[in-house]
Amino acid sequence: MRRILCTSVKPPCFDVAIAGGGLVGAALACSLGRLPVLRDSKIAVLESQKLKSAVQSPQDKYSNRVCAITPGSAALLDDIGVWKDIKQTRLKPFMRMQVWDACSEARISFNCEDVGALDMGYIVENDVIVAALHKHMEAMQNVEVLEGVRIESMELADSNKPSWLTCNLSNNSLLNTKLLVGADGATSTIRKMANLKHFSYSYNQFAVVATLQLSESSNNVTAWQRFLPSGPIALLPLSDNLSSLVWSTSSDHAKSLVTMSDDQFVDAVNAAFCEDYPRHSLVDSSLATLNAIIQTVSTAKQTVLQLPPAILNVEDKSRASFPLHLGHCMQYVQHRLALIGDAAHRLHPMAGQGVNLGYSDVECLTKHIKEAAEQGQDLGSLHHLRSYEKERLQHVVPMMATIDGLNRLFTTASTPVVFSRALGLQLTDAIAPVKVRPGHEWR
Questions:
Q1: What residues does 179 pair with on adjacent strands?
Q2: Residues 273, 224: contact at Cβ < 8 Å?
Q3: Of 14, 240, 270, 321, which is the most buried if we count CB atoms within 10 A?
């Protein structure tokens, strides 16, 4: 890789330019750069920040921003050559997940055996993944990184214009590319400049994140999530004695959680996982009857509620909060332009699927670019970009609708709603074919 500051007078020309070198953009660069058919092509990554190619030490302080990487995403990262570095730095596999409702006895659990995998997933710090990707890019001869540079404007291309899209950069230079990929996040400037239709709305919630010390060391291989009336709270394993917190709650409560003392914060987290919330006797009695019926007609083991380990302390300066939104672009592509990751879609973090959807975008776009290159087609042509868009929309839209619906379903204490969701959760836990659909890919 040649790392340049992009100061040349003559506009450089690239086959693919990627705006954004973060979790998803850097993965696309590595994925494309390894393709034999693109060995002699030129791929650019425009990153406004400096690269994070310095690999962290296992002794370094844990970051409060983490990803729940699925086996499918881990396979992609392995294919592009970075998973080994990630594993050597640090990650924490989890083998079990328990989800339960604070307003009823309803609960469900998943084990790695349920999804046909050695592990259910891996909790990895964002910085660890990005550093491994950036380090890998440095070894790729067909990838160039333009550091400290962003796209200020571009000449929108259509099928009747020349074979290059021209970008005006922040240092007053130009760049030509056959295909521009917007991987610049939820507030994507590429999406805005392309005038692609996008809708977004606020959940009126904030996610509070922190790194927590457990009261005692253990295997710590369970991911815990409890649905509170104000939003879900999740505890994700980082090591034998550390876990990462993601607590979705109201704006005022989030501000209070971030500013209160460490002892008050620890008490609040422990209470959120253990505290009894008001319940309706009709819901509890109905669930008890349902469970009795299930036990007489099914041999499946019902989930026994377990509580997460108690929290001892919070790591210094690890608390932070950020607003939660849902966002989706009505179009992922345009002539010579494609969007991936949060630039195309943004989800509630309750299911931990945001970056995994982004890596599925990477896998899908790589496939269609590879096919176009092998057939000698224009990489920026709408012919294959439309195929990428269609394939991703068919997967992303149902996923977004499901996660948004679950968030709305569980952030209420209304008795009829609590009854309905509790019934659904218990039946799902009891019926294995529903719990994990045959052939379902755990991504």
A1: 16
A2: yes
A3: 14
H or E element in which residue 53 lies: none
Scanning 299-431, the segments in alpha helix (DSSP H) are 354-374, 382-410, 415-430
Structure tokens given for 334: 């345009």
Q: How far apart are CA 434 and CA 118, in angstroms?
A: 21
| pTM, full prediction | 0.89
How many C-beta atoms lie closer than 10 Å to residue 435's C-beta? 17
Burial (CB count <10 Å: 0-12, 13-18, 19+), residue 427: middle
Instruction: Count how many residues are written for the chain.
Output: 443
Q: Are strands 222-228 and 96-101 parallel, antiparallel or unpaired?
A: parallel
C-alpha radius of gyration, the chain, whole number: 23
Alpha-carbon distance of 316 to 171, in angstroms, equals: 38
d(CA 210, CA 226): 17
CA distance 231 to 249: 5
Please name the residues in contact with 96: beta carbons below 8 A apart, sequence gap of 6 or more: 109, 110, 111, 112, 120, 221, 222, 223
334: burial class by Cβ within 10 Å (0-12, 13-18, 19+)?
A: buried
The answer to whether 290 touches 423, Cβ cutoff 8 Å, is: yes
pLDDT tens for 371-428 read 999 999 999 999 899 999 999 999 999 999 888 888 877 777 777 777 677 667 666 6
